[in-house]
Amino acid sequence: MKQLLVDTDILISFANQDIKTSQFFDNHKDNIVLTYITVGEFLQGAKNKDNMYNMREFVDQFQTDLGSRDVNKMAISILSDYRLKHGLGFFDALIAATAISNDSILVTKNAKHFKFIPHLQVKRIEEI
Question: What is the pTM of this model?
Answer without folding.
Answer: 0.93
